[in-house]
Amino acid sequence: MSQASLDAPVTDSLKSLAVDIVDIKHVYPPRRPSRKAKQQQVSTEPITALKSLSLQVNESEIFGILGPNGSGKSTLFQIISTLLKPTSGTARITGFDILSQPQLVRQQLGVVFQSPSLDDKLTAMENLLHHGHLYGLAGSDLKQRANDALAAVSLTERANDFIETFSGGMKRRVEIAKAMLHQPRLLLLDEPSTGLDPSARREIWQHLSKLRDDLGITILMTTHLMDEAEKCDRLAIVHLGELVAVDTPDSLKQQIGGDVIQIDCQSATELMPELAAMYPENTLSEIDGRLLLECEDGPVQVAKIASAFGQKIKRIAVGQPTLEDVFMHLTGDKLADG
User: Fold this and answer.
1) Topology of domain 3-250, per CATH?
2) Does 258-320 carry CATH code 3.30.70?
3) Contacts of 301 (CB under 8 A, 6+ apart)
4) Pairing mode, if any, of strands 62-66 and 234-239?
5) Residues of the chain whose pLDDT is less than 50?
6) Do 50 and 25 form a contact (C-beta atoms < 8 A)?
7) Is the pTM of this model over 0.85?
């Protein structure tokens, strides 16, 4: 295939999508069994991480991929960033194909991995300048881009300070600035708030929203954190390699509707069948010994449950559905922290 055909312009419909994933499947080959694996009877069968997953992300939106460890979201992240080829299917990033045009795809991407990649012995500016050289940037153009990137994350006054003096949240902001140096159209973030305190998380989100609103950057992130997922424009819920649902956080929660009653009890194993008998048409689940009942007229049902099972209950409360409730409702599993 000629270079001219590789660089051919894409249609306007594809240009309007930052990410267009079509039937992506990925199977990890079987591992060579070690002596320990044989002794412990560890499975060495092929592992299907993604099962014909299709997904579209619009330009200039903050899009979250929500799922626990082992859901396939990290594999999808690696495929989108061209670090891993899918077993089948394909994807276009701002119109460029990840299989036939990987170099052009990489030019569109700014990637922030969960593991830090900064040199603590260099300043913030020095880290950015070194990274810029990898993209062929140099001279006054690189310096201006570095200044602009640090300004975008409010770190201009700390440009010449050593990274080792920065907090975790500030380091993450430098990582984002570094990823923005080559002016990408799509910013990929792997669990951006993991390990940060609530204040640092809020700061990161203020800057991500600014990048979307002021520069039109599309932001695609993986997460297992509820507060982070709530802030996304749209969410994809991924479970065991499959796409379960895509919508805004509010619309996803409306799929449950009504109220969710949370019950801390003496024995979930004992109380669960009794509640199921009382509410045979309602969704009842258990998370870490706590029972969750989806119902209408929550306050009325709380009084009814307390009257019937008062001695078996430690605490009972009613609230609106959360994204964790949605995940449980759609998958039957809890969204455990990873």
Assistant:
1) Rossmann fold (3.40.50)
2) yes
3) 259, 261, 293, 295, 318
4) parallel
5) 1-11, 13-14, 337-338
6) yes
7) no
